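HOLO CASE FILE
Compound: magnesium ion
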Amino acid sequence: MEDTRRIVLIGKSGSGKSNLANTIFGDSVFNVNHSSDSKSNFSQAKTRVMNGLTLTLIDTPGIYNIDRTQEEIQREIFSCYIESSPGPHAFIFVLLVEKFTEQEQAIVDQIQRDFGDDVFRYTTVVFTHGDQLPETMKISEFVSQSNGLRDLVQKCGNRCYVIDNKYWNNTMLNEYRSNRFQIQQILHSIESTCRQNSNGYFVNEMLQQVEIDIQKEQDRIRKSGGRAAGESRDEAKQIVLQNYMKRQRKKRFLKYAIIVSGISVISYILMSKVVGFFMGTVASEGAPVGSEVLSSSVVEVVQDAVAPIKSALDYVIEIIEAVFNRRTRLQYNKTDAL
Ligand SMILES: Nc1nc2c(ncn2[C@@H]2O[C@H](COP(=O)(O)OP(=O)(O)OP(=O)(O)O)[C@@H](O)[C@H]2O)c(=O)[nH]1
Ligand SMILES: [Mg+2]
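Model generated. Tokens follow.
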């Protein structure tokens, strides 16, 4: 049986992921300077040996913050894949003991879309801010009070636990309200999830491709520099991430270039149409027209000119994006030997 476990902590910013990772390790390993502007952050992985098990925790930045663009989300998921490659054994979905709102539901739906339907078979739900839980209440009772939470926890095989990173570190009186007890339960639950999944880890097409890329890069580094396996893998991960960002930058540049050229073409055609209209009016009538007639005619000319140009440009952009996406995929399949 493999004695390594890779566990990804996921959830919105401020839910307590980094603190939970530190509570699990019993040490301040992850940076907990939570900031709403963690846009430049990538996933971070740290490894410790616990009870004979090599445990790697992957702390993600707030991937699903509402201010994230699709591009940022994709980049952060990619960095999470790199750190958890060849695939995580478990996900911990971190939520606060508070009302489960539409925002939380949207995050659950987005996780399913981004990682695939299978993700909940590998997920354990952990609530932070356990101090907010009424004194005599267990977390299962709290969950049962909300349809959204109940559905989520059911999808996750009823695996749900509660901790409090701030107040439950040294509690001796109440076993349930103690991090020590809850963390043990969480780790047991993750072990049984692994057994249920035949000791395998979560994998999807993207993760498979990321692992192939890392290994190719690692081979290249080893051949060129004779570095140790661990070192070359870390370096390979960095290079694969940089290559991904380069591709993203190229894609963004192309998109802006198309938009700017489109606007320039539209402006040019509009200007020539308007100038042509004035020249024609003056030539045929030999005198200036009334302002009302003039303004409605100009609007019509503009509408007539813009409609076909706009659809033509939409069509061109679609074709270019399709070609570009195909090229990027092909490039990606070639695993970027840059
Ligand atoms: N009272 C209490 N405060 C907590 C708990 N967990 C986290 N906090 C506080 O909540 C804030 C955010 O915690 P983080 O662990 O940085 O949250 P995060 O999910 O890693 O946030 P990002 O890194 O921005 O995604 C910090 O000020 C913590 O001190 C908890 O269980 N109880
Ligand atoms: Mg954090």
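CASE NOTES: Residues 13-19, 32, 34, 38, 61-62, 128-129, 131, 164-166 surround guanosine-5'-triphosphate (ligand 1) (CB under 6 Å). The chain has nine helices and six strands.
CLOSED: yes
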